Fold each of these.
Amino acid sequence: MITYKLLTPGPLTTSRTVKEEMMVDHCTWDNDYKQITQHVRAELLALAHVSPEEYTCVLMQGSGTFGVESVLISSVGRDGKLLILSNGAYGERQADICRHAGISYVLKKYNYNQIPDAGDVAQILQDDPEITHVSMVHSETTSGILNDIEAVGKVVKAAGKVFVVDAMSSFGGVEIPVADWGIDFIVSSANKCIQGVPGFTFIICRLDELKKCEGKSCSLSLDLYDQWKGMFDGKWRFTSPTHVVLAFAKAMEEMKEEGGIPARSKRYYDNNRFLIEEMEKLGYKTYIDREHQGPIITTFFYPENCSYTFKEMYEFIKERGYAIYPGKVTEAETFRIGNIGEIYKEDIEKLIAIYKEFLSDK
Ligand SMILES: *Cc1c(COP(=O)(O)O)cnc(C)c1O
């Protein structure tokens, strides 16, 4: 079996010790197991800088999209109207969710290298009083751009609307004071910056908004309110991904040992900036300008008159121990390199050495 490290935005490279946690089969209604679930929920609230009096954390089976869908169908529902601010594929996916569920929405689109503007949001909310909710992505993994959810949150709160954030690829990797920034629902998943394995998503919810979700969901399994009610003592409503939860609890412990979000964020930022600097020396340019480039993943342009394909580059790098990612922006030829997970400076150094070797006969 060929093994390689993942320079992708999740699933990502996890530690051996996180993977080893999955060697145990746990009983779902056993008290020990329920306590692990409760512990994870409490720790996630702490990472979000919110209190259990104001917020709760709901865990939900499935990948990150299940969590976003759960919030939109349970909170916006069929009587609300959602404004989606989008500068990438994950913003567009929210519109897709709304189309499937019959939720009314307005999609405000931006170029993929441009951040949504809080001034625009204020204007749209003023012009369309029917809008009840505003949602956006924090770290748009499509490009690697980091959006200004703080600025938009201020405007959304001033207008008295509900604010939903997809922080899938940033939660745990970037500090997000959830209450201070006016966020009512924030979604992430097990296999991103907390560095667990894929299998569930989590939603940190403002309690008073969550309570309004009762009976609104058009889906049984994605009903956020019912999932929360059922989880009061740590028991999952339907079969829980036990191995994934154990691995996640371990991943949270390892995050603490690393020094929490500040230390992890610094590692991601340092490695990301180092990667960009070294890639620029090799002639690659980034799609996102430095001011808005996040620390999670970077989109690079191919050089002019490029003589190789993504597949050639990918295979060459993979044979030497790393997997990179194809581009996802629509208007340019690009590829992406992620730097979250168990990735350290020496990995970036090795990757750059591989690039030098790859480029030497190009
Ligand atoms: C990973 C990710 C998601 C969720 O994608 P899944 O494939 O459903 O896990 C949603 N939004 C963003 C920004 C992401 O990076």
Amino acid sequence: MLIFEHSREGRQATAQAPKTSYIPTIPKELQRTTKLGLPEVSELGVVRHYTRLSQKNFSIDTHFYPLGSCTMKYNPRVCNSLAMNDGFLSLHPLADKSLSQGILSCMYDLQEILQDVTGMCAVTLSPMAGAQGEFSGIAMIKKYHEERKDFERNEIICPDAAHGTNPATAIMCGYKVKEIRTNRDGNINIHDLIPLLGPQTAGIMLTNPSTLGVFEPNIKEIADLVHEAGGLLYYDGANLNAILGKVRPGDMDFDVIHMNLHKTFSTPHGGGGPGSGAIGVGRRLVPYMPVPYVSKNEEGFYYVDESQAEKTIGRLSAFAGNIGVNLRAYIYTLLLGKQGMPRIAEFATLNANYLMKELERVGFQLAFPSRRASHEFIVTLKKQAKDLDLTATDVAKTLLDYGMHAPTVYFPLLVAECMLIEPTETESKQTIDKFVVAMADILKQAHTNIEAIKQAPHSAPNRRLDDAKAVKQPNLVFNG
Ligand SMILES: *Cc1c(COP(=O)(O)O)cnc(C)c1O
């Protein structure tokens, strides 16, 4: 039902009405003469309407949400309430630095904390999404080669399992993408890498743990080979929870990393934003960092701009990135402290490995059965799809009836009928066990009543949609 259908003439939400004393200050000729056409609903009516709508959504506040890879991990309320402090909210981004020492010191500290946890030489917080962090990272790699008059390098190597933003980024920066296949165990094949390397290699983009949910064991060898060939190494660190406080991309000799602060460091990002794709750089790329970033001298903190960073690749946003997201990340890192970081990695991997083994026990097939899970892992329904006509979509839709969000399905594309599952570091054993029971139940039901599964979800406000049609011909008209 639309809010307009609740409307009754003369009804009002008085607490929300503007104070009439403000109105005379608007010049007469600018005042409306016709009615605004807003719904006329009581305050309670408004509250109930929107609360009811919000309850139709799946949300991490109400349901288990084991979406692999792009998962919202932990978003403590306190991070949000502190970031919403009036002092932060009312500060203009162009306010003089003498008025902005508080926020500048927070951002400086966050840069230092991220630098420390990644082992990189410097960090900047201005990219506003993972993809923008990637774009700036590859733009820096490009500038590095150009500054060295090394114009021949026109290829970026990406594993076939990479997140789609990786090859897209390389193309947007004017590179050709060379795809490297992962082997049966989900690793990069060194033998396949060697012939791809040469004077045309600008760099390689790696995700570790990879989007196949496994740790890449040959990083050192890959780093040495790529550096020997004159290329640089990019680390897609969108999801850092499996390695936090355990190993550092800087120590693995990566030249640049982006981190999705909105995934690993506490900002909820359902629905596509807002984000922060902070980047850390190694010594080779420090001069090219995008501006502004925060530095300090005897007079205090200040933003470094183009005048102090001549070789910068430039600006990525009007101001200094998504301050609100960066603030939440800052508060979260302070809550965790140095001791808290490795606990994130321990629980993220413990939960994922426990869930992986449990699902295997109840009859699901793992895509990489010989491997340990990272913060996530992949189940393949190839066999069930063939024998029972039970697809990943069917399981995803049926899980909704169990009050659980679906895992990521059909990504990475390499694995047939794939479910990429991440329980995250903050779910209890009881919740994870409930998920196992639901999954086992669905598998059992597939043997006896596949027709019902094919019709799922049965309990959601919308039943099964034709997802191809929903994209091509979305029906956005309200029809009761
Ligand atoms: C989410 C994600 C990205 C892209 O980040 P956005 O903020 O959505 O642009 C890149 N790589 C990996 C592995 C991701 O999970």
